[in-house]
Amino acid sequence: MNQINTKERLVGLIGPRGSGKTTLLLQYLKSDYDIMDSLYMSADDIIMSDTTIYKVAEEFYSLNGKVLIIDEVHRYRDWAKELKNIYDSFPKLKIRFSGSSMLNILHEQYDLSRRAFIVKMNELSFREYLEFKYKIKLDSYPLSNILNDSVKISSSMISKYSYIYSEFKEYLKIGCYPYFMEIPENYSVKLFNSMQKIIFEDIPSLNKIEFSNLSFFQKLIHKVAAAKVPYKVNLAQMSSELGISQPTLYIYLGILDKSGIFSAIRKYSDKVSKKPDKLYFRNTNILNTFANEFDFEIDQGTFRETFFVNCFFRHRGFQDREFYLRDRR
C-alpha cells in the first residue's frame, strides 16, 4: 500500500492476473480518499466503447476530482497515449492504473517511463499468505542464514506457530493468490479460469497474436505439465513437434514467461545466452492446477524446485539463471 500511496502523480500496478491489483487499488481509495474525490473505472467496461478514458478524466477533473483509478488498462486500445495526455493535461490529478505483467512501459512510444512510477506485484509469498490469513508477521532471513541455520529457524517458527507446516503444504497448492480468502474449494477452478483469460484475452491483445495460433500456447502448457519434471528445452525438437518455426517458438516461450505462467531458466554459464534451458511453471499453485486439469501426477522434486525458483524470481538479480550453491548445482 505504501508504494501506491505516494506523491507520485502516475502510478502503475503491473502483475499477473489474480495477484490482487484491483483489491489493492480499491483499498487505497477506501483508506485515503472521500468518495466524492475519487473515481474507479475498468478499461474493459462496455461503457468505454462509447467514450475514451481521456474524456472521462477530463470531465472528472472539471468536477474537482482528485484521484482516478483505471483498472485493466491493457484492455484499452490506446492506453499509453491517453495516459500520457491525461498526465500532461490535468496537473493536479493523481492517476493509478493496473495492467498485465506483459505490459512493457519502458518500451512504449509515448515515453511513460519518465512519467510513471511502476510497482511490480508478485503472487503472495508464504509470509504474505500467513499475514493475510492469520494477521501474523514472520521474520525474514538472509539466504546465508537460511542455508546455515535452517533447523534452528524452522524449529523456532514451529514452536511459536504449531500449524505452520500444515499451512505451508496448503499454501503450495492454494495460497499464492488471494482467491483462498473466498471459497477454498473453488480455488483451482478460479486459477485455471484466470490462466485461460491470460491465454485467450491478454496474450492476443498485447502481442498481436492471431486467435488461430493460441492453441500453440495451450500445447506448450500441456507439454510442460506432462513432463512431470522441469522441462528441458530443445527448441528444434519442440518446434518440429508443434509445427512452428524456432523463432516463433522462442517468441511464444517469452510471452508465456512474461505472462506469469512460466519461469524460463537459462543454463549457468559464463557465456551470454538468451536461450532457455529449463521451463518451470511460475509457482506451485499453477503447477498443481494444470496437473489436476490434465490429470497428471506431480513429482515432489519438481514441486520443491518450482517453489525454490519462484522465491528467487521475486528478486531481479536472480531471475533467469540456473542455481549453483558452493560450486554445485
TrEMBL record:
InterPro entries from the UniProt entry: AAA_14 (IPR041682), P-loop_NTPase (IPR027417)
PANTHER family associated with the record: AAA+ ATPASE DOMAIN-CONTAINING PROTEIN, ATPASE
Pfam families assigned: AAA_14
Organism: Candidatus Uhrbacteria bacterium GW2011_GWF2_39_13
Domain (AAA) ranges: 8-130
Protein name: AAA domain-containing protein
Lineage: Bacteria, Candidatus Uhriibacteriota
Domain of life, per lineage: Bacteria
